[in-house]
Write a structure and sequence with these properties.
This protein has seven helices and 14 strands. It is an alpha/beta fold and 269 residues long. It has one domain (3-16, 29-268): Rossmann fold, CATH 3.40.50.1820. Helix 1 (3-14) packs parallel to helix 4 and helix 3 (67-75) packs parallel to helix 7 (257-268). The longest helix has 17 residues, at 100-116. It is globular.
């Protein structure tokens, strides 16, 4: 265990938000030295929630500025939780580490956020961990390492990096959303910095989750369409669910994604 992860675990164990401290979409909540923001729906809880991780150079505040997406969830009675990654070294914004010891420290932080959400009237047993791009990488790795940490996982425009994990734990309930024309994180991945880092293959990542879930076949069990989305579904072991949603766009959270996710959760619960 490196010093970064050890320090974070210690901070999470002894610090947090003081009882009664106010935090919401305008005022970050604090856990140790790290923060998250939350936008609640109207009415009393317990509320289901989507915890949505920002992309590279983004922030939790930036997630909550995605008004169309946030309001679609709130209108359906869902809370939106927007954690902050660690500051980028030598750059603006924040990032998720997703691999190695730093990635495990981010796992610890996200579980600590989960455990803190009860005071907002959020049902900790009905949280979707989702993320975009760099945030999606963190989601995929946490789903692989600790599938029971969250009820559902929903990476958007991101998966694993090469070398892919040897295997994933299961069962997991996961919806993978990706753009057919994504050139920033192509479906097949791409090398960065002259091959120092190489993005993984989204289809190979789904194969890892199929094996973890005990899915019947590698080929999808069923196909469908929902608006602009082309859907592939796999029949898997009890307690598992695996689906892929392809859309014709590029690198982004596409219009209508909130409704897609809510429909998938309703079918999966």
């Amino acid at each position: 265990m490196n010093r970064l992860r050890a320090a974070l675990i210690l901070a999470l164990s002894i610090a947090g938000v003081a009882p009664g401290a106010a935090c919401d979409a305008d005022a970050p909540c604090t856990i140790g030295e790290r923060t998250y923001q939350v936008a609640l729906p109207e009415g009393e809880g317990p509320h289901p929630a989507v915890m949505l991780l920002h992309g590279f150079g983004g922030s939790g505040a930036g997630i909550l500025r995605m008004r169309g997406t946030v309001e679609a969830f709130r209108a359906a009675g869902w809370a939106v939780v927007a954690p902050d990654g660690l500051p980028r070294e030598g750059g603006n914004g924040r990032r998720w580490s997703f691999r190695d010891e730093a990635g495990l420290a981010d796992d610890d932080f996200l579980r600590a956020v989960r455990d803190d959400l009860g005071r907002h009237g959020i049902d900790e047993a009905r949280i979707v961990l989702s993320g975009f791009s760099n945030g999606a990488f963190q989601v995929a790795y946490l789903a692989c390492r600790d599938p029971g940490a969250f009820a559902f996982y929903a990476p958007v425009a991101g998966g694993f990096w090469r070398p892919h994990p040897d295997a994933c734990a299961g069962p997991v309930r996961l919806l993978q959303t990706h753009g057919w024309a994504d050139s920033t994180v192509p479906l097949e991945g791409r090398p960065l910095r002259g091959g120092t880092w190489v993005q993984g293959d989204v289809f190979e990542g789904l194969a890892l989750f199929r094996r973890a879930n005990g899915c019947t076949w590698d080929a999808p069990s069923s196909y469908g369409t929902e608006g602009r989305y082309q859907l592939r579904r796999w029949d898997c072991d009890e307690g598992a669910a695996l689906e892929m949603a392809l859309h014709p766009g590029g690198h982004g959270i596409p219009a209508g994604w909130a409704d897609l996710l809510l429909g998938w959760v309703a079918r999966t619960e």
